[in-house]
Design goal:
By secondary structure, the chain is α+β, with helices and mostly antiparallel strands. The chain is elongated, with a radius of gyration of 39 Å. The termini are close together.
């Protein structure tokens, strides 16, 4: 993993100390791999994605709080006219289980007018009990549903993090390749200007020996001035696009950094795996881990939990609570294991609570079923759409690769023809008009070749973005 902050600091120091294009200093190469690794390591969006993921994990911890043990203590006392009417002391510990609840408590009630059902022996009465949901809550309840939903939320947080990082790396990669194209365009026009200056000097030499008219020098100077203007515009475009690429560069102190003009973007085509990217296996591997499809799958799982919970609410709310009672707190009675002792020292509570028509519950169940059906259709459509988007990107990449080869051949031929015309002109047979024409064609073809070459890199990055696998583009 790219963790060397020392390297990053030294790298930025090197950038700051590098000279501008106007100087004679050697440009510092900034490879695409290094650029993307810096973005992934230090960009705020990358860190925000990690925070969002941590928040989702806290949802699991919060949902587990519904299973936290509960301590309850209550004391109620009434005195009047010097008499203790009643004094109720109830203290218990409730421990939620995966199904039902365990409880242990102690009651000590006194007074002349206490409710007879609340009488306790001297020294109080202790109990250990368990509540079992026989109907509603047996298969699933809101506590178990909350934990399962929180686990899904954690996974959804991972998918959201992956989606955010995919978008970040995709935008950064496009900014880098735009900058790369502008840089290569600047170099190409700079080279064309050098050729125009060389042609102008050549024409002046021919004029000096009387083999050409003065108008030839004017004609050759036009191309030189045109290339000078083009170079100035190319330099401005390059610097502006470099600034845009700088938007994605932050340091280890969470401060934005601006890349100076002495940097040189390099193709760094070693990360390209064309055969793998164009294969059918690429799509098969991408779909299961695609963040959008993962989120849709998790959404469907969440609705399935809602459906199970809604179905559970259709069952009768029927609970059975059994409590074992004892007033012996210092020693265990000898006959505690006998059935007679247990049958004479217990408390049974049976609770039934159920709406007659369960209209709200039935509506909720049907609503959840319809939502599941809706998401199922949405999931199928998204899968088809994603698959086709990946195939479109594969076709785009494949076409860019073919165009790159064709355009390179055309560019090489234009340069050969231009150079041949220069040789013919020096021999007194060529035409300056043809030299200028083929020089213009050569620079057009060169710029087109640079654009097509850049499109290969862009199409490759776009393919990984459509597949939801931008993090695998430049592995750490």
């Amino acid at each position: 993993m790219f963790r060397s902050k020392t390297f990053f600091t030294l790298f930025l120091f090197a950038l700051i100390c590098t000279g501008s294009w106007a100087s004679d200093s050697i440009p510092v190469a900034l490879s695409f791999k290094t650029y993307i690794k810096i973005v992934k390591e230090f960009h705020p969006i990358s860190k925000q994605a990690n925070i969002s993921n941590n928040i989702a994990k806290l949802e699991i911890k919060r949902s587990r709080g519904t299973f936290d043990p509960l301590i309850h203590s209550d004391y109620t006392r009434k005195t009047y006219a010097g008499k203790l009417y009643y004094g109720y002391f109830d203290n218990y510990l409730k421990v939620p289980a995966w199904i039902g609840d365990f409880s242990a408590g102690y009651e000590d009630n006194t007074g002349l007018y206490q409710n007879p059902t609340d009488y306790t022996p001297d020294g109080g009465l202790g109990y250990i009990g368990y509540t079992l949901p026989v109907g509603q809550g047996m298969i699933i309840d809101y506590r178990r549903a909350a934990i399962k939903q929180a686990r899904l939320m954690s996974k959804m947080g991972e998918a959201e993090k992956q989606k955010a990082l995919n978008k970040l790396i995709y935008d950064a990669s496009y900014a880098y390749w735009d900058w790369y194209f502008a840089y290569q365009k600047f170099l190409a026009i700079k080279n064309s200007l050098a050729n125009a200056v060389q042609n102008f000097n050549m024409v002046k030499a021919v004029i000096s020996v009387g083999d050409a008219s003065l108008i030839d020098s004017v004609e050759s100077s036009l191309l030189m001035y045109e290339r000078t203007a083009d170079l100035q515009q190319a330099n401005t475009d390059m610097l502006n696009l470099q600034l845009i690429a700088s938007n994605f560069i932050w340091d280890e102190k969470e401060m934005p950094r601006e890349m100076v003009s002495g940097l040189m973007p390099v193709p760094d085509s070693t990360f390209l795996q064309i055969d793998h990217a164009l294969s059918a296996q690429f799509i098969e591997n991408a779909l299961p881990a695609h963040p959008d499809l993962t989120k849709m799958k998790l959404k469907l799982s969440s609705l399935t939990i809602d459906k199970r919970l809604a179905r559970d609410y259709l069952l009768p709310n029927f609970d059975v609570t059994g409590k074992f009672l004892t007033n012996s707190f210092t020693s265990i009675p000898n006959n505690i294991t006998s059935s007679d002792y247990i049958s004479d020292n217990n408390k049974i509570i049976i609770t039934l609570n159920q709406p007659l028509f369960v209209r709200k519950e039935r509506a909720k169940f049907k609503e959840t079923k319809l939502k599941i059906e809706q998401v199922n259709w949405e999931q199928q459509y998204l899968k088809v759409e994603t698959t086709n988007q990946i195939r479109i990107s594969q076709n785009k990449l494949n076409n860019s690769i073919k165009n790159k080869v064709t355009q390179q051949l055309a560019t090489a031929n234009y340069i050969k023809v231009r150079n041949a015309e220069v040789l013919k002109y020096n021999a007194g047979e060529g035409s300056l008009l043809k030299i200028n024409f083929y020089d213009s064609k050569a620079i057009e073809a060169t710029l087109k070749s640079i654009k097509v070459n850049t499109e290969v890199f862009k199409a490759y990055c776009e393919l990984y973005y459509k597949a939801g696998r931008m993090e695998e583009l430049i592995p750490f």
